[in-house]
Amino acid sequence: MKAVHFGAGNIGRGFVGLLLHEAGYEVVFADVADALISQLASASSYDVHEVGESPAVKTVTGFRAFNSASQEAAVVEEISTADVVTTAVGPHILKFVAPVIARGLAARPTDLPPLHVMACENAINATDLLHTAIVSAWDTSAGDLDAIAVFANTAVDRIVPNQAPGQGLDVTVETFYEWVIDRTPFGDKVPTIPGATFVDELGPYIERKLFTVNTGHASAAYFGYQAGLEKISDAMADSSVAAKVRAVLEETKELLVAKHGFVEAEQEAYVQKILSRFTNPHLPDTVNRVGRAPLRKLSRHERFVGPAAELAERGVTPVALLEAMSAALRFDDGNDDEAVELASLLSELDAAAVVERITELTPSHPLFAAVQKLVEDRQAEA
Ligand SMILES: NC(=O)c1ccc[n+]([C@@H]2O[C@H](COP(=O)([O-])OP(=O)(O)OC[C@H]3O[C@@H](n4cnc5c(N)ncnc54)[C@H](O)[C@@H]3O)[C@@H](O)[C@H]2O)c1
Ligand SMILES: O=P(O)(O)OC[C@@H](O)[C@@H](O)[C@H](O)[C@H](O)CO
User: Fold this and answer.
1) Which of 122, 180, 194, 202 is most exposed, with the fewest beta carbons within 10 Å of its own?
2) Which reaction equation describes what this protein catalyses (predicted)?
């Protein structure tokens, strides 16, 4: 069995690549970072260090690696005979990997079974985004795309920080992981990945993960950044930050229980587990990594505006979520392109235009005025 995985970064090596390797796949990494690909191509193994409760070291072997820009033909060839293609490149990058996947699919011998394609990104239905981008790049003379590939949405959960320089290919990760995959597109040909969980209704799992793990994580990052703290575990050790994060997750819990029918006690246990993951002092994770790309994180269907808008539509005024969004507006990391763009938008546009641009909320939405007030307060400080 062969899997081609796009994105040999933190989650690519520390989670998806590891689970595919453990499932018995020969993994082919595809990335555009030349130094990383050279290192992978010349290595025979790398280690994944799981830190926290029950630490362990797992070794990944039997992989190959290609640069999907300069060695595109090789990647296309690999895809044409692969069983699985996965991505962990970031939701905004999917449109760039889609044409390569489309070419690999078009080159696939007709006697091979359909390729299983799964995007492993933090975004709701990321595989649907990838599918749309592949359709745009599809050469219709190559046949019926949906007969050549099966597309399944997934939710991936494992905290993998940026790796310390000098660590080579090895990756430090938390012990916890969860990879939940929509079973329904596969029919009776479900891929063999023992570390993954296949479910018939993925929607609630994706929202629960994004609106609990990622909403809580980003809140810890933005409140921690405001408090002048660098590590997520230090932010969570600050009682004021921890209380604000807890309050945010109380609001998303209310939505998730009401919307998806999760049992409240089970959702509370899920929240507690996640808060304990954020406090893991062995994990060198930073507020800058977790807060990265604030425009994406403040967008319409993401971790703040997504749940806050739904609560407002249900007649509930979110308070803690708005406080976290207010902190996000103050994430001014000069090394983060989106934080720099956010600062420009705040200085160039009036508050209502900023809200429309960043959140895509319209002025008639019940959340709009509250977000506009946050932006006005932020602009008044400048
Ligand atoms: N790190 C985590 O804890 C974690 C957990 C769950 C999900 N995710 C999601 O996984 C995705 C990747 O996150 P990450 O933390 O591994 O980021 P990362 O920056 O460590 O890795 C991304 C990799 O994608 C590569 N890349 C960029 N453009 C590319 C292209 N056009 N073609 C091929 N490769 C390209 C980069 O060179 C990099 O190696 C994101 O969607 C993130 O939200 C991350
Ligand atoms: O990857 P992002 O930028 O969407 O979010 C940053 C972190 O919250 C995220 O990477 C988590 O570590 C991960 O989602 C845990 O499963």
Assistant:
1) 194
2) D-mannitol 1-phosphate + NAD(+) = beta-D-fructose 6-phosphate + NADH + H(+)
Instruction: Output the residue whose Cα is nearest ligand 1's atom 25.
Output: 7
How close is the Cα of 79 to the center of ligand 1, in Å? 19
CB distance 288 to 333 below 8 Å: yes
Ligand 2 pocket, mutate which of 92, 122, 222 (most atoms under 8 A from CB): 122
Among the CATH numbers 1.10.1040.10, 3.30.70.2580, 1.25.40.20, 1.25.40.10, which is that of 204-381?
1.10.1040.10
Query: How many angstroms is it from 290 CA to the middle of ligand 2?
Result: 6
What is the Å distance from ligand 2's center to 154 Cα?
14
pLDDT of residue 53: 84
What superfamily in CATH does domain 2-200 come from? NAD(P)-binding Rossmann-like Domain (3.40.50.720)
For the cut 90, the answer to whether the pLDDT of residue 250 exceeds it is yes
| pLDDT one-digit tens code per residue, 298-347 | 999 999 999 999 999 999 999 999 999 999 999 999 999 999 999 999 99
Provide the pLDDT confidence category of residue 165 given band limits of 50, 70 and 90.
confident
91 and 123 Cβ atoms separated by less than 8 Å: yes
Which residues touch 265 (CB under 8 Å, ≥6 apart)? none
Question: How much is the mean pLDDT over the chain?
Answer: 97
The domain locations on the chain are: 2-200, 204-381
Longest dimension (CA), the chain: 64
Residue 113 Cα, ligand 2 centroid: separation in angstroms? 33
Tens digit of pLDDT for each residue in 258-296? Answer: 999 999 999 999 999 999 999 999 999 999 999 999 999
Query: Ligand 1 site: residues with CB under 6 angstroms?
Result: 6-12, 30-33, 36, 68, 88-91, 93, 96-97, 121-122, 156, 158-160
Give the side-chain half-sphere CA count within 13 A for 189.
12
Show the CA angle centred on residue 245, arms to residues 240 and 246, nearest 5°. 95
